[in-house]
């Protein structure tokens, strides 16, 4: 199919990748808990758009540059880590600075726009060079060596990854969204901000320490 083989195995691999906790899943979870289904789907759509960029990069060789050039990898890596750290600092400030009444008001404040969440999801995904290298390492394993058009095979597998990934996140959003009906106390709201900020700080550190493979 378009030069690809072992498609069932590829789909199962994508499912495992999507279900593995990481930046994308954490961001979608937090967006859903704070803004509901619409916010969660906007975040998931932004992540999917980022995967489109990684697909095109892998198909046309840009991801190979990250694999071959330590300088290019480091630039993208530090940019992504800095962005995640910026998100973490914002959440930690909300957790530490908000008094109980302020925390309750923040929880009741209007959610961020879908466009803003889309941009944030897109940015967190695109600025993760490990995703680009993952695409470069995974997709060729499912491309037939005799495929007449390997670029088309790359694009086909990447497109399937994007569609399946968005479908997984959409189901995840629908499963998580009912938790918003629970009205947490202000202290719990602060704790969620602190936990979310700590998680993103940890992910930023992990990305900063990542090496090319």
Description:
By secondary structure, the protein is mostly helical. It is built from 9 helices and no strands. The chain is globular. The longest helix has about 35 residues, at about 25-60. The two termini are about 30 Å apart.
Write the layout of secondary structure elements.
Elements: H1 7-19, H2 23-59, H3 62-68, H4 70-97, H5 100-108, H6 114-126, H7 129-138, H8 150-176, H9 186-208
Distance between the termini: 29 Å
Helix content range of the residues, please?
over 70%
* Strand residues, percent: under 5%
Mean pLDDT: 78
Largest sheet: none
- The number of helical segments is 9
| Poorly predicted spans | 100-109
Shape annotation: globular
Number of strands: 0
Task: Report a brief summary of the structure.
It is built from 9 helices and no strands. The chain is mostly helical and 213 residues long. Helix 2 packs antiparallel against helix 8.
């Amino acid at each position: 199919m378009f030069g690809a083989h072992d498609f069932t195995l590829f789909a199962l691999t994508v499912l495992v990748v999507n279900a593995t906790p990481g930046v994308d899943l954490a961001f979608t979870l937090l967006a859903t808990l704070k803004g509901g289904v619409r916010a969660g789907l906007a975040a998931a759509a932004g992540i999917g758009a980022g995967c489109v960029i990684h697909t095109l990069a892998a198909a046309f060789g840009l991801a190979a540059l990250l694999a071959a050039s330590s300088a290019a990898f480091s630039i993208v890596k530090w940019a992504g880590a800095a962005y995640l750290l910026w998100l973490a600092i914002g959440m930690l400030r909300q957790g530490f600075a908000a008094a109980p009444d302020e925390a309750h008001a923040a929880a009741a404040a209007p959610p961020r726009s879908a466009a803003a969440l889309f941009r944030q999801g897109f940015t967190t995904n695109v600025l993760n060079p490990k995703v680009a290298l993952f695409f470069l390492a995974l997709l060729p394993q499912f491309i037939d060596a005799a495929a007449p058009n390997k670029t088309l095979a790359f694009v086909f597998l990447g497109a399937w990854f994007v569609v399946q990934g968005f479908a997984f996140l959409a189901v995840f959003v629908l499963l998580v969204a009912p938790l918003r009906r629970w009205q947490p106390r202000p202290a719990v709201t602060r704790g969620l901000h602190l936990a979310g900020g700590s998680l993103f700080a940890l992910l930023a550190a992990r990305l900063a320490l990542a090496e090319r493979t």
